[in-house]
Amino acid sequence: MANPARVSEGTDRPLCSVRHPGPSTTSRPGPGFPQQLVPVASTSRGPSTPHLASDGLFPGLPDEELNSLLSASLADSTRKAYSASLERLARLGIRPPFTQESVNDLLLQARQQQLPFSMVTQCRAAMTKYNSLRDLSNPFENPLTSGLVTGFKNLARKETTATCRTAAPALAYAMDTIATSALSTSTSVEETRQAIGLFLAFVGSLRPKTLFNVTPEHITVSNNQVQITLAHEKTGNRMDQLRTLRFAASASNPLCQMLDWLLGQQLPANLPIWPATSKPQLLDLLRRHHHPDDRTDIALNSLRPGGASCARLFTSLDQVKQWGNWTSSAVDRYLRSTYTRPATGTILHQTMSQIFAGGT
Hints:
Elements: H1 63-72, H2 76-91, H3 100-112, H4 117-133, H5 143-167, H6 170-183, H7 189-203, H8 208-211, E1 219-221, E2 225-235, E3 238-248, H9 254-263, H10 279-288, H11 303-312, H12 317-324, H13 347-355
Antiparallel strand pairs: 1-2, 2-3
Helix pairs in contact: 2-4, 3-5, 6-7, 7-9, 7-10, 7-11, 11-12
């Protein structure tokens, strides 16, 4: 979870403050609900004035002790993230208790202001948790509401995919020049390390989050095999999974040469080599090596589709799925038909052809 924003003193109330919202004014949506994506006058707008509950979730306990118990039920980082989301909702004019109208209002403003779907996901988690702690209904459980959220998610995915689809082919040029820089003795140690990270993320079809958690102890280079253990992976609907990349070790494989150099730098074994704080430097390096005729808004999330598209030119679709940890046809959304096979003799061609030797 991203570092949550600090909650200002203007927040209406902390997430775990025990309140009783009073009578609900929410009515079940009629057939026209999907068309009613407009802000409506309801308890979801404007200041809320709920009352303390003497007969709330834990009858007989003083309110202070009850608040303390609920606060202790959440990790500090989780509580801060929820509170930051509640503050964000308050800035949008959406305040508890949360109803289906609150969700309606959130989605409308998210589309109008072009807010990322990740923000909607964070707000959804906070709204659901807030209501559940007060024994209120989940405002997202209605099938029509769920359909609206799914529609928002699919639209956001198409827009993101369109950006990556345009940017991905430019990576073939960038990756080869970045790899050349990584292998050059005239490149600074810091830039060499960043260049290796970008090249590994491309070749390994890694998500940025996965790259940010690779440590030296996750990389093993023996006489005949390279093994890289990856954490914080997503497999289907399961998050924070582990997977392992394995390929033959060879002195003629440029990636093996890079990893050999990297392990020789005596970096702390259990600390990320490319932590999330290095994202600006990684992105700057990627854009500096971009072809001048290509678009400049390429991002780190283009590395995964770019690497998968390049790998497909050297091996079968099944092996690409296994390599990139795809368990379904979702891989099809990542593959770009505009890719062409890297020129023979380039660093990218040498790396891919050796990793996927014998592939079709």
